# Entry
Amino acid sequence: MMADIAGIPFLEANFDKDGNLLNAVDLPAGTTDVFIISHGWNNTKQDAENLYDVFFKNFADLREAAC
# Structure
């Protein structure tokens, strides 16, 4: 499912402990840029979501400041 953080489209890929993809990830047609970010092993799903939220909100703020 496509989500959005600060106006930036967001797709989540989930992996099991062996690195196997647990969900299909299909990029929309016309996608030109992809950012991959990982939260690591010792964080909860909520920790990861908080990290992504802060990261992409800061990214959006920098993009706005540059325009």
